[in-house]
Write a structure and sequence with these properties.
Number of strands: 13
Organism: Streptomyces bambusae
Distance between the termini: 41 Å
GO molecular function, one term: translation initiation factor activity
Order of helices and strands: EEEEHEEHHEEEEHHEEHEHHH
Structural class: alpha+beta
Oligomer: single chain
Largest sheet: 8 strands, mixed
Protein name: Translation initiation factor 2
Mean pLDDT: 95
Keywords: Initiation factor, Protein biosynthesis
C-alpha cells in the first residue's frame, strides 16, 4: 500500500497530495493532452442505489420550492499520466476522461464514510487501505480547475471564501481565487476536445468577472489530489495585467455570473511573506488551496529572478520568517 505524502506550509499539514509541479516551471499548453471517451462511468449496484437516493431527494426539494442541487454533465478521471519531453524534459500530461454527472460526484464525495454491505467504507477501501491513485474512475467524478489570481496593476493576491450555499465539502472555507469543475456542457467542444486553459478562463469570467478581452498571463503549474475528499485539482496562476483590487471590486458590485458561490474576498500584497502570513493566520482552508498559492509564489519568484529555479528558496525563507514571527 502506498501512503501519499501531504503538502505542508507554515506549520500546517494539508490533505493535498502534490502529484505534479513544483512551481518553478509551467506545464505548457501544447504539452497537455486530454483524451475523452464517450463512455459513461459505471457504479457498482450498491452505489447506484445511493445515487438514486440523491436524485430523488433533490427532485423532492425542487418540487417543494426548497434550495436544491441541480444535475449537469461532468467527467470522471480515468487516468492522469505524467511524462517528459525527449530533450528539454518539459513536463507532459495525458488526462483521460469518461462521461459522468454531478450526482455521480455527490454519490461518492458525500458518502466516503458510509458503511458498505461488506462492512467497509469507500474511504477505508480505496483511500486508506490502498493507493488512492489506483481507485476506479467512479471514485473520481470531479476535476476542479483552481486559479490563484494576482493583480498586475497593484501587485496583490486574491483569496475567495466559498459560500455556505455551495454544495460539497469546501463550503464555508477559504479557497482558490476562482475554481470551476469541468462540465461537459461548457468545456467539451463539438469535436470532443477539452482545453484546461479555456476552463481556467471560464472560471475567471464566471466567478470574478474577468472577461475574455482582459489581458491575463495564465500558466498551468501542476496537479494535486485532495486526499480528504478524493478530488483531482488542476493548479493555475493568473496575473491580471491591467486590473487591480479597485477595478475588480467595482465589477463585482455590478454583478458576477456566479456571485452566489463566494461570500467574501481578501487581498494581500503578493510577496511571499504577506501571502504566507495570511495562510498561517486564517483558519478553514480547502485542502489543496495552500498548495496552489505556494506554487504561485514560487512561480512568481522564479520569473522575477529571470528563470532561476533556486528562487524558490526565497519562499522558504519567507516561510521561516512567518513562523519565527508567530513564535514571538
Amino acid at each position: 500500500m502506498a501512503h501519499r505524502d501531504r503538502f505542508s506550509i507554515v506549520g500546517k499539514v494539508t490533505d493535498c497530495h502534490l502529484y505534479e509541479g513544483d512551481g518553478t516551471r509551467p506545464i505548457l499548453e501544447e504539452n497537455i493532452r486530454v483524451l475523452y471517451q464517450n463512455r459513461r462511468v459505471q457504479f457498482p449496484d450498491e452505489l447506484g442505489l445511493w445515487r438514486r437516493e440523491i436524485e430523488d431527494e433533490e427532485a423532492r426539494k425542487q418540487a417543494a420550492g426548497e434550495p436544491y442541487r441541480w444535475n449537469n454533465p461532468r467527467f470522471a478521471v480515468e487516468s492522469l499520466v505524467v511524462s517528459r519531453t525527449h530533450t528539454a524534459e518539459w513536463p507532459q500530461v495525458t488526462l483521460s476522461l469518461l462521461d459522468a454527472d454531478y450526482y455521480d460526484f455527490l454519490t461518492t464525495s458525500l458518502n466516503l464514510g458510509r458503511t458498505l454491505k461488506n462492512g467497509s467504507t469507500l474511504r477505508k477501501q480505496y483511500l486508506e487501505d490502498a493507493d488512492p491513485m489506483d481507485a476506479p474512475p467512479w471514485m473520481f467524478c470531479s476535476l476542479g480547475v483552481n486559479v490563484a489570481v494576482e493583480t498586475g496593476k497593484d501587485g496583490k493576491m486574491l483569496f475567495s471564501h466559498r459560500s455556505a450555499k455551495v454544495a460539497g465539502p469546501n463550503a464555508s472555507r477559504w479557497n482558490s481565487s476562482a475554481n470551476e469543475g469541468l462540465a461537459a456542457n461548457h468545456d467539451l467542444s463539438p469535436t470532443g476536445e477539452v482545453n484546461l486553459h479555456r476552463v481556467a478562463r471560464r472560471a475567471l469570467r464566471e466567478e470574478l468577472a474577468v472577461q475574455d478581452a482582459d489581458r491575463v498571463d495564465l500558466e498551468l503549474l501542476g496537479f494535486g489530489l485532495d486526499l480528504r475528499n478524493n478530488q483531482w485539482s488542476v493548479f493555475f496562476r493568473a496575473v491580471l495585467e491591467d486590473l487591480g483590487e479597485e477595478e475588480l471590486r467595482s465589477r463585482w458590485g455590478r454583478g458576477i455570473e456566479d456571485k452566489w458561490e463566494h461570500d467574501q474576498y481578501a487581498f494581500t500584497p503578493n510577496d511571499p511573506e504577506s501571502v504566507l502570513t495570511f495562510l498561517h493566520q486564517t483558519p478553514l482552508w480547502a485542502p489543496c488551496a495552500p498548495a496552489l498559492f505556494y506554487l504561485a509564489l514560487v512561480r512568481g519568484a522564479v520569473r522575477a529572478a529571470g528563470g532561476a529555479t533556486s528562487a524558490r528558496l526565497t519562499v522558504e525563507e519567507a516561510e521561516r520568517r512567518v513562523l519565527d514571527h508567530a513564535r514571538g
